[in-house]
Design a protein that fits this description.
heterodimer; A: 464 residues; mainly alpha; two-stranded antiparallel sheet; globular; B: 592 residues; 2 strands
């Protein structure tokens, strides 16, 4: 067999299939460590292969269902790395079936960016989101409530998504993403435009756009924090990837139409997230609202609907994934081991554990967008893309929201650096590894952002 | 083997990192001084191999936003090589000297960390070829000099001096940033050499003015000169480094690089005027000051003023010559002053310090002669070059001669008064050897540089012709200086130390005028009053604005609380909102 990019592309499919098969077979294995290792090795392989395909500029459609190109490979690589982080984070703290569910979620997440038809996309998204709501579920009432909320609301988004698919079906019976673009390019087609609105609503549910995001705070707070890290770091990003794919592959001719809607949703989401975050006392809930507001920022780039805008969105998706996973990793550790929930519990954290104090402060500063850190470049790119697309109002509102966000991030930071008499606390090893990697990425790439920026711009150009 | 210029920073960065880490682990590290010295030596070795290499310009891509690329660009042209060599060579002497001078075991890590970063910043500055790398180095210099000046921060005088320094430097930093942004808007480039190659723009006056403010704050020119004499509260090696080859030289170096831009915009007269005023004031202050190091600080202010004057006359050679030779004699003066202070219970008044060591006396004499501009020593070539350049303008030339006389007077006053004091019975014990080695290196450098300058002048025919043509003026200048030395001898050497001390404690009107720069301190106060009044007026505005923002914050909080009503925890409500949102979007779609 000749080894070329096509054959390596098939390797990706084989790896994803193996991932799925392994996770199903996990119900037969008792040894948790073995499951953990198998998943980590598979995901690491996936990251390597997709990274290689990204670098070597692969472009292949497999089985008319999967599209291997630079956009999908960037996200496959990113999601594999993020799933490894989540696995390390929840090492030794989860039940048996967790690994099965995580494997299924990972399979779904890998397939979303690779999808070549709306059916694949639909199935992959639902695979991830249904499995997530099952992963949240335990006998604990709070967890159960969060899982039920997520399940019921995702059912609604499913129905809307399928209705939207029905609306565009007449124009392309194969439902291929790329094929639709040429057929649907009939201006003033009301059915298509209604379809766009419904797609935005359905994917806005996953991507946490207001007003489809009310489940977010409850679920984020109700779920265990390692799963919250996964939902905010991966599931939400899946929603954005799907949204970008649907809007820019299927409805590329309709940017004039959806860009206004997305801009409106973005403004509402930013204000909703930031304003409500200001009055929160629970750290997890505050971070949930902050992640809603970050979703609003990401939508600025989609609203700009240019290659710079997409680059900005992709960059911010990567940056925010690392920031929020790092933050929730700290929250997970403090909550599960010391029962610390509210901001007043965090008083004097820096004194009780220096690493946590400095690390969480860096993450907060990055989310605010302070220059040498990764979050700054994301916001800079987003706002400049809005200005380039002549949406100065959008950029201005984004900046105002950044101001507002300083209030609640600052509140947490001030609390952490208060003096205290409380005992010193120890950080567990897996938390230190995960947060260390996240902080390294945020500071290291922040000093040399060209790496991610280049990757993001390549992916953006591949999508357009 | 080819070496990228940026590698010169690597040993320093590594050692600084070690100093930082070992500071966390062990507060009293004994090894760090040797590690720091090794880093500076290896950095100098790399610098030497870069100097031996061909000149070139190298860009290291950092990141880019759209079309705008942010590069760390470095170059190794002749000027870069000269500054690199100066920093490396004097750096080695200073780091050896520091081993003896900083003999307290506490805070060694902090000292060496700051010194290493300072050296690193200066090396980066020496090779920087665009505004990005320049600004990084510029900021690092500012911050580390603040930390080093305030090294003994527990004393209130020290922390105030450090604050004065950082306040002035920050003014310069802001104007530097403004200059960079304006330059970029006008010329669309960060690179110096592209900038120099471009056609002059009438708008260039604005960035150049901001650049001048930045340079004047960094190089302590009038009216930003005060921080430099206050900075004498820092450790002596820091002062020696700061005044000889780093920090204050940065501003002058930048001016030398970008001088054609100033010439094109007809701004040289500003340089000339400011340089002359600064030099006169510096020399006057130095004559009436009693603090051993502050005299030297004022002398540095005067030297920098002379360099700016040379640039104002568009005499780049003269400026560069003084730039080089000043580094050696000023470093030597400071290092010997530090030694003398250390031997005299850290006293600061020149009337109370006795100099016993022969090496120190000899170095002081050599450096003083060089500063005054006596023939075989290198200072002569710097001072006469400026004199020759100013020949065409009689007023400037006359003022320069006056400055020469004044500077000879104050430096020999410094030397004679120090030498006059008797030996003390109690001796201070301190590790002399490393300090003597450091002083010895700089003394050797001074002598070698004298020979080098001599040969350079002989070798380059234009310079030689210039000197021969102006031999009469040079002779007059030398005679004048010798007379001034004699006057200083008569005035300070012959008089009784106690009478002299008493008289200088109560200076007459002349002394007071000299010290107060005629009106400058008063003018500072008036400016400060005006600024304070403006600040007071702004305070009311500020308070109103504060209330306004507070109100906005309240509104935001109330809105947040109201929006919370959506989050009542009930799924049916969420579904309702979801549906409402959907309906809203559909309505929007229909309207559109």
């Amino acid at each position: 067999m000749v080894i070329n990019n096509i054959s390596i592309s098939y390797l990706i499919l084989i790896l994803v299939a193996t991932l799925f098969a392994f996770s199903i077979s996990f119900s037969l294995i008792r040894n948790k460590k073995a499951k953990f290792l198998q998943l980590v090795v598979l995901l690491a392989l996936l990251a390597l292969v997709s990274g290689w395909l990204f670098i070597s500029n692969a472009d292949a459609v497999l089985l008319n269902l999967f599209h291997i190109y630079r956009f999908s490979m960037l996200f496959t690589c990113l999601f594999s790395i993020l799933f490894i982080l989540i696995l390390v984070l929840s090492y030794d703290s989860e039940a048996d079936y967790f690994y099965t569910l995580l494997g299924i979620i990972a399979t779904g997440a890998m397939i979303v960016p690779m999808a070549y038809s709306l059916i694949t996309l639909f199935l992959a998204i639902e695979m991830a989101s249904v499995a997530t709501s099952f992963a949240i579920m335990t006998k604990n009432k709070i967890h159960l409530e969060a899982a039920m909320k997520m399940f019921i609301l995702s059912a609604i988004s499913v129905s809307i998504f399928s209705f939207a698919m029905v609306l565009v079906f007449p124009y392309n019976p194969q439902l291929a993403l790329a094929g639709l673009a040429s057929n649907s390019a009939i201006s003033g087609n009301y059915l298509i435009e209604l379809g766009i609105v419904l797609f935005i609503a359905a994917l806005g549910f996953e991507a946490a756009a207001f007003p489809f995001n009310l489940w977010i705070p409850d679920v984020y707070q109700g779920a265990r924090a390692n799963l919250t890290a996964m939902i905010s770091g991966i599931n939400k990003k899946i929603g954005f990837v799907a949204m970008m794919m649907v809007l820019f592959l299927v409805f590329a001719q309709y940017t004039w139409f959806f860009s206004g809607i997305i801009a409106m949703l973005s403004i509402a989401t930013m204000f909703f997230g930031n304003l409500v975050a200001m009055v929160q006392q629970n750290v997890k809930r505050m971070l949930a609202y902050s992640s809603i507001s970050q979703a609003g920022y990401i939508m600025i780039g989609i609203a700009a609907a240019s290659s710079l805008g997409l680059e900005a969105s992709i960059f911010q998706i990567i940056a925010h994934a690392f920031m929020i996973i790092g933050a929730f990793a700290f929250v997970f550790w403090l909550e599960s081991q010391y029962g610390m929930n509210t901001i007043s519990d965090y008083d004097g954290l820096a004194q009780r554990n220096m690493f946590a104090g400095i690390g969480l402060s860096i993450l907060m500063l990055s989310m605010i967008g302070i220059p040498p850190l990764l979050g700054f470049y994301g916001k800079f790119l987003l706002f400049s893309s809005a200005l380039n697309a002549r949406m100065a109002v959008l950029a201005f509102i984004g900046i105002i929201n950044s101001f507002i966000s300083v209030y609640y991030y600052g509140k947490l930071m001030i609390a952490m650096h208060r003096k205290t008499n409380k005992k010193h606390i120890m950080i567990s090893r897996n938390i230190a590894i995960v947060t260390g990697i996240c902080i390294f990425v945020i500071v290291g790439i922040g000093l040399y952002p060209e790496f991610f920026m280049h990757a993001a711009s390549i992916a953006a150009r591949a999508l357009l | 083997m080819f070496i990228y210029p940026i590698y010169v920073l690597a040993p320093l960065a590594l050692a600084a990192f070690i100093a930082l880490l070992s500071g966390v682990i062990d507060k009293k590290s004994r090894l760090i001084k040797y590690i720091a010295l090794a880093a500076v030596v290896s950095s100098f070795a790399i610098a030497c191999s870069i100097i031996a290499q061909q000149s070139g310009i190298y860009a290291l891509h950092w990141f880019s936003f759209g079309e705008v690329a942010f590069n760390i660009t470095v170059s190794t042209f002749l000027l870069n090589k000269i500054l690199l060599f100066l920093v490396g060579m004097i750096g080695i002497a200073i780091f050896i000297y520091s081993i003896g001078y900083m003999d307290e075991p506490e805070d060694q890590n902090r000292y060496y960390f700051e010194m290493l970063i300072f050296t690193l910043a200066m090396m980066l500055f020496a090779i920087s070829a665009n505004f990005i790398s320049l600004f990084i180095a510029w900021e690092l210099l500012g911050i580390t000099s603040y930390l080093l000046i305030g090294f003994w921060y527990a004393k209130s005088k020290v922390s105030e001096a450090a604050r004065a320094a950082i306040t002035t430097i920050l003014i310069g930093d802001i104007s530097m940033l403004a200059a960079i942004v304006l330059f970029f808007n006008i010329y669309h480039t960060f690179n110096f050499y592209t900038l120099l190659g471009m056609a002059a723009s009438p708008l260039a006056v604005f960035p150049l003015s901001f650049l001048l403010i930045a340079v004047f704050t960094k190089s302590a020119q009038f009216p930003f000169s005060n921080w430099l004499q206050l900075a004498m509260e820092g450790p002596t090696p820091v002062s020696a480094f700061l005044h000889s080859s780093t920090m204050v030289k940065a501003g002058v170096f930048l001016l030398i690089l970008l001088l054609p831009l100033f010439a094109e915009s007809n701004m040289l007269w500003i340089l000339l005027a400011v340089g002359l005023i600064t030099a006169v004031f510096g020399a006057m202050n130095a004559l009436s000051e009693n603090h051993i190091k502050k005299i030297l600080a004022y002398s540095t202010i005067e030297d920098l003023g002379l360099m700016i004057v040379a640039l104002g006359l568009n005499a780049v050679y003269a400026a560069v010559a003084l730039f080089i030779v000043q580094a050696f004699y000023k470093a030597l003066l400071f290092l010997s002053a530090g030694y003398a202070m250390k031997a005299n219970h850290d006293r600061e008044d020149i009337h109370k310090i006795a100099v016993n060591s022969r090496l120190i006396s000899f170095s002081m004499l050599a450096a003083a002669l060089s500063l005054a501009g006596i023939f075989p020593l290198s200072g002569f070539f710097g001072k006469t070059a400026i004199g020759i350049a100013a020949r065409s303008n009689m007023i400037v030339y006359a003022v320069l001669l006056g400055i020469d006389v004044l500077s000879t007077l104050y430096i020999f006053r410094w030397f004679f008064v120090l030498k006059k004091n008797k030996k003390e019975r109690t001796t201070v014990r301190f590790s002399k050897r490393p300090m003597e080695i450091g002083i010895g290196i700089v003394l050797a450098l001074l002598i070698i540089s004298s020979f080098a300058m001599y040969f350079a002048v002989n070798y380059i025919s234009i310079l030689r012709i210039n000197y021969i043509k102006n031999i009469n003026d040079i002779a007059i200048e030398t005679l004048l200086i010798l007379t001034s030395i004699a006057a200083a001898w008569l005035f300070y050497r012959k008089k009784d130390i106690k009478a002299l001390s008493a008289r200088e404690k109560n200076p007459g009107i002349a002394g007071r005028i000299l010290y107060n720069n005629v009106f400058v301190w008063g003018a500072y106060l008036i400016v400060a009053e005006i600024i304070a009044a403006a600040a007071n007026a702004l305070f009311y505005f500020d308070r109103a604005f504060n209330r306004f923002t507070y109100m906005i914050g309240k509104i935001a909080l109330l809105t947040g609380n109201a929006l919370r009503a959506f989050e009542n925890g009930e799924v049916n409500a969420y579904i309702a909102v979801f549906a409402a949102g959907l309906v809203f979007l559909i309505i929007f779609f229909i309207i559109k």
